[in-house]
Amino acid sequence: MCSTLQALDIINTAFPRGLRPYVDSFLDSSLAHLKGVFSAYEIYYINATESIPGSSEDEAVELPYLICPLFDLVSNVVRGGRAKQWLDPQNQSQNLTNLVGVVFRFTQMTAEDVRTSYLFSIGISVHGARAGRHLGN
Fold first, then answer.
1. Does the pLDDT value for residue 81 go beyond 50?
2. Which end of the chain, N or C, is more open, meaning fewer C-beta atoms within 10 Å of its C-beta?
3. Which residues, 6 or more positions from 6, have their beta carbon under 8 angstroms from its beta carbon?
4. CA 22 to CA 81: how far, in whole Å?
5. For residue range 15-41, what is the model confidence (pLDDT) as tens digits?
6. CB neighbourhood size of 73 (10 A)
């Protein structure tokens, strides 16, 4: 699925008119997939309450490899101005509200981000203190 999304994004960039009749369907599907995969993302990445399950495939398939191409496709369509009608709240759709909500849900710091941020801040504190002593402060 990741390769399909990446191909759609490339086609959308190279031949936007060819995808124009299907843009709303792609956006609907992308938003539905983002909403659907969020609960697993929250469990395995944001809260890290469970271990990420292994893959039956030869290559590991992690959720970010699915999520990022979805966001790439949606952002390129939106930035390209081809989602105006889809985003327009006057069309009795909640697409704009739902999309903004999904973006904010996925931009939460993951458990790994928190650990990395904490370790980085400790490293700065330790190195900063050493640098201060070295400089005579």
1. yes
2. C
3. 69, 72
4. 14
5. 567 678 888 998 999 999 999 999 999
6. 25
CA neighbor of 95 nearest in space, from 34, 28, 33, 29: 28
Tokens of 49: 């309450």
Whether 68 contacts 78, CB under 8 Å? no
Q: Which long-range contacts link 22-29 to residues 24+ away (Cβ below 8 Å)?
A: 23/77, 23/82, 23/83, 23/86, 24/85, 24/86, 26/73, 26/77, 27/74, 27/77, 27/83, 27/86, 27/95, 28/86
Amino acid letter at 32? A
**77, two tokens:** 């369509």
pLDDT digits (tens, 9 = 90+) for 88-103: 988 878 999 999 999 9
| Ranges of each domain in the chain | 2-106, 111-137
- Count of CB atoms within 10 A of residue 9's CB? 20
